[in-house]
Amino acid sequence: MLSFFLPLFLVFLMLGLPVVFGLVAAPALLLWLNGQERDIVLLYRNVYEGMNSFPLMAIPFFMLAGELMNRGGISARIVGFAQTMVGHFRGGLAQVNVVDSMLFAGISGSAVADVSALGSIIIPQMEKKGYPKPFAAAITAASAIIGPIIPPSGIMIIYAYVMGESVAALFLAGIVPGFLIGVALMITIKLMADRYGLPKAMPRASWVDAARAGAAAFWPLMTPVLLMGGIVSGVFTPTEAAAVAVGYSFIISIFVLRSLKWRDLPGVLIRAGITSSVVMLLVGAAMAFKTVAALAHTPELLAAVLLGITENPLFLLLLVNLLLFVVGMFLDAGPAIIILGPILGPIFSAMGVDPVHFAVVMVVNLTVGLLTPPMGLVLFAASAVSGLRVETISRAVMPFLLVEFLVILLVTYIPAISLTLPRLAGFVN
Fold first, then answer.
1. Angle between helices 58-71 and 111-128 (to 10 degrees)
2. What phi, psi does 222 have (nearest 5°)?
3. How far apart are CA 378 and CA 286, in angstroms?
4. Which of 223, 208, 210, 219 is nearest to 257 (CA)?
5. For residues 401 and 329, which has the higher predicted lDDT (pLDDT)?
6. 3-state secondary structure of 7
7. With b meaning 16 or more CB within 10 Å and e meaning fewer, what string describes 77-112?
8. Distance of alpha carbon 59 from alpha carbon 153, whole angstroms
9. Would you say residue 420 has pLDDT above 90?
């Protein structure tokens, strides 16, 4: 009976129960029906134990750093810098949108923060220049999923915590796939711009204007350089790097750029606290859910099913990609990683797939899942920013979603895309 906890959880989701409650209610109900009342106590104790972790402290710190940067007007500076680089191309503002997301990813590490911060600036500009509003919202949502792939990344921290991998290795492994998605989106925009006659955003910027915009964005863009440099060189741990990010964001926003006022700090702290609480509760509930998965021998059962279909690792990777793509339609990336990582990771490690490579495949796939209907969180964020219905954005985002799925296949079947940088840094043999 205990093996039915996952279908019951999906039923709770379809009934509209919040994910965090469904993660603990489904296994608790089945444990009670199975006469395992003592394990229910263990289940709810694991909600706290799942959050009581030093590495997970990086998540609220990175969220606070992102809030400080966002409220400090960093987004506008990044948009201005991106416009000087690619704004003169046809479809230039759409290209700017993608470059913004690639740059902002190194600061916030959150797809929803990307949509909220950049979308509120760039979508009205695109609409004013003659872009269809659904197209503007769609490319904003499609490029926002780069946020959790290029470091710093909250979901990579979660994966490393659950699976015992190196956070630095996962951060390095996500850089090239993140940029590859950005480049693929920019090529798609170029093809669409030529076919549909999308407008140019602005004349080519002069060297003086480019230098001025680069100087305005210099300090914010140094954030990922500082963090990755410190982590890879061993100066500080990822958790300490998150605290450094908060201090750095505070100093440049208050004292260097003077774009954040002291009176803004209470609101920044409240928003970061609420967002962090939601994520940490999900992590705790998902860790408890993982305990029941172990009790039900779910990893062994799923491994037997997959190996019963085929023992070819390449074909199994395709099946898992399809599985993760479907899971991403209904479940947020963090809980999905905690639930499925311990189930799928050991299967592919035993087949010779590098754990860091599989981690990136899983993270990229589930992150793209944030863009898929009906439950894609990024779609809802783009709807809130643009004022369009989720269904309208979903239709407009389909070409970009197809391109991102093709990138997933490239990352899956060409391990060098994700493993080259960790290998050069000595994290992978």
1. 20
2. -80, -10
3. 21
4. 219
5. 401
6. helix
7. bbbbbbbbbbbebbbbbbbbbbbbbbbbbbbbbbbb
8. 9
9. yes
CA-to-CA dists, residue 262 to 68, 113, 244, 245, 259, angstroms: 11, 22, 20, 18, 10
| 3-class SS of residue 392 | helix
User: What value, to the nearest 5°, has the Cα angle with vertex 381 and ends 377 and 387?
Assistant: 135
Q: What's the rounded Cα separation, in Å, for the pair 343 and 360?
A: 16
Q: How far apart are CA 292 and CA 311, in angstroms?
A: 27
In which residue are the tokens 């260097």 written?
256
Write the single-letter amino acid at 207.
Answer: W
Share of the chain above pLDDT 90, in %: 17
> In the chain, count of helices (H) and strands (E)?
20, 0
Rounded-to-integer distance, Cα 392 and Cα 387, Å: 10
Q: How many CA atoms lie within 13 A of 176 on its CB side?
A: 19
State the Cα–Cα distance between residues 60 and 269, nearest whole angstrom: 10
The pair of three-digit structure tokens given for residue 312, joined into one six-digit string: 């070819």
- Which residue shows structure tokens 């060098």? 416
Is the Cβ–Cβ distance between 77 and 343 less than 8 Å? no
Helices (H), 200-312: 207-233, 238-251, 265-295, 298-309
CB 84 within 8 A of CB 209: yes
**Could you read off the pLDDT of 168-190 as tens digits, one per residue?**
899 999 999 999 999 999 999 98
Nearest one of 3, 9, 4, 2 to 331, comparing CA atoms: 9
Structure confidence at residue 202 (pLDDT) = 66
Residue written as token pair 């029941």: 292
C-alpha–C-alpha distance, residues 77 and 201, integer Å: 17
Q: Which tokens in the block code for residue 280? A: 């940490």
Do 409 and 321 touch, CB atoms closer than 8 A?
Answer: yes
> Token pair of 92, please?
């230039």
CA distance 366 to 332: 8
pLDDT range class, residue 115, cuts 50, 70, 90: confident
How many C-beta atoms surround the C-beta of residue 413 within 10 A? Answer: 13
Alpha-carbon distance of 241 to 417, in angstroms, equals: 25
Integer Cα distance of 207 and 210 in angstroms: 5
Helix (H, G, I), strand (E, B) or coil at 200: strand
Q: Is the pLDDT of residue 2 over 60?
A: no
Q: Which tokens go with 144?
A: 């926002």
- The residues facing 200 across adjacent strands are 90
